[in-house]
From TrEMBL:
Residues 92-173 form the ACT domain. PROSITE patterns: ACT. It comes from the Bacteria. Pfam families: ACT, ACT_6. This is Glycine cleavage system protein R.
């Protein structure tokens, strides 16, 4: 029987961090299932899900903890199986517009009011091609309870998009 380990990590950015993590995982027989890693403001940060035989999970955790002596801060949690239930409508939300403080807060408040579960949230700020002004981009993958109509969520998001003067796209997520 296998289990998943979910590892969050942060440390000073330097070459070889991913290799150090991957080598320890491979040495213990773990399979690298998914990850999201990035250099953010001179720090290396991310989240990784590894799958390993339950009997080897403790050995893998100990091997990963050795990276803490190299200045990498880790949090390791054992994953649980995804439960079947009422969360089944998947939507992908994309937002693009001039950056300003509070966009994520306003969007996440609407999602919370509709009991949407965020599966993935990716954001970035970049310079707009012609003006050079800061441009905010977000991709949010959510699951809605069966009791929530996607059109209701979309309507509230469209109202906010108009207030913020951002482009919004809501579509079924093709998981």
């Amino acid at each position: 029987m296998n289990t998943s380990l979910v590892i969050t990590l942060i440390g000073a950015d330097r070459p070889g961090l991913v290799n150090a993590l991957a080598a320890r995982a491979a040495d213990c027989g773990a399979n690298w299932m998914e990850s999201n890693l990035a250099q953010l403001a001179g720090r290396f940060a991310g989240i990784v899900r590894l799958e390993i035989a339950m009997a080897e999970a403790g050995r893998l955790e100990a091997a990963l903890r050795e990276l803490e002596t190299e200045g990498l801060h880790l949090m390791i949690e054992r994953g649980t199986a995804a439960g079947a239930g009422s969360l089944h409508r998947a939507l992908a939300i994309e937002i693009v517009g001039q950056d300003r403080p509070g966009i994520v807060r306003q969007i996440s408040a609407i999602l919370a009011r509709h009991n949407a579960s965020i599966d993935r949230l990716e954001t970035r700020c970049e310079s707009a091609s012609f003006s050079g002004e800061p441009l905010f981009r977000a991709r949010i993958d959510v699951h809605l309870p069966t009791s929530v109509l996607p059109a209701s969520l979309q309507g509230e998001l469209e109202t906010l998009a108009n207030e913020l003067m951002v482009d919004l796209k809501v579509a079924p997520d093709d998981e």
